[in-house]
Amino acid sequence: MTNRTGPLYRRARPGRSPARVVLILVLCFFVILRTTNRRATATHDSPPPARPAAAASNGKYVPAGDEGLGAAVAIMVDNSGSMRDKAGDDKRPKYQVARQALEEMLASTDSFAARQPGFPIKVGLYYFSSGVHPLVPLQPYDAASSRSALESMPAPNGGTAIGEAMDIARDALYKSGIIRKYILVVTDGENTDGRSPREVAQEIAGRSEGAVRMYFVAFDVDAKKFAFLHDVHGEVLGAGNGVALRASLDTIYRGRILSEALDAGESLHVPASSPPAKKP
User: Fold this and answer.
1) Can you tell me the distance from the alpha carbon of 204 to that of 169, in angstroms, rounded to the nearest whole number?
2) Considering the domain 68-267, what is its CATH architecture?
3) pLDDT tens-digit profile of 249-261?
4) Which residue of 7, 41, 43, 116 pairs with 265 in a disulfide if CB–CB is 3.0 to 4.6 A?
């Protein structure tokens, strides 16, 4: 009788070896699949690596170079689609009223320069809708350039990126080489595109340590929508029509910005240790 249980019989049994090969291959496949899944899960669940720029993004703003006395003003003008509408009893669209008011406002820079020759005043003009666009880069004030820039603004269109405009203004101010920095925003509506102005205002106030002053003129829009400026030592004034707009711009530009710069300029000519004037 033949022994069917011996090793020779098992090796000679047809179909046995291929089955083992298939089994081994299947087991290998599952092992590889399980290892791959574990690696993918670990990668997915692991926290993202720390960003090296995180500390810098929360730190103090650093000027592009040395800074001196003077005043740098970044003026951001709303040119969204709603600026085509009329404000109050004005017969002209808001964008035309605003451009004329800004031109008159900037004219007061000439009289200031006459009183303080050699005191640097840098002005930048930008308009914003869904994005932000430069008209005149932040540079020493030039009346002719500012006037032609305002006249060259395109027709209003698009949304209202107030927060983005503020951030662009801040960046330009820190490249101006001037210690006193001001942002002046003229807008007729709430933010619709990009970062919120509240968030940007808080960031600027914190990272500039109060070095950047922020002013808004709410043209034909409730000024309370920008009440957050009070929390960062900024200011907002309302204006329901062209007359009120000119008055608000004059209050901020001549009454706040230039007046503060004028005090700083006059202090340059009065030594701290000057003796009192002798009586005749």
Assistant:
1) 10
2) 3-Layer(aba) Sandwich (3.40)
3) 999 999 999 988 7
4) 116
Measured distance CA(96)–CA(275) in Å, rounded: 53
What pLDDT shows up at residue 118? 84
Residues whose CB is less than 8 angstroms from the CB of residue 3 and which lie 6 or more positions away in sequence, other chains included: 9
Are 238 and 222 a contacting pair, CB within 8 Å?
Answer: yes
pTM of the model: 0.75
> What digits encode the pLDDT tens for the residues 184-233?
999 999 999 999 999 999 999 999 999 999 999 999 999 999 999 999 99
Domain boundaries, the chain: 68-267
Who's near 39: CB < 8 A, 6+ residues apart?
Answer: none
Residue 218 tokens read as 């709410």
Q: Are 67 and 179 in contact (CB under 8 A)?
A: yes
Burial class (CB in 10 A: 0-12, 13-18, 19+), 191: buried
**Exposed, middle or buried: residue 46 (CB in 10 Å: 0-12, 13-18, 19+)?**
exposed
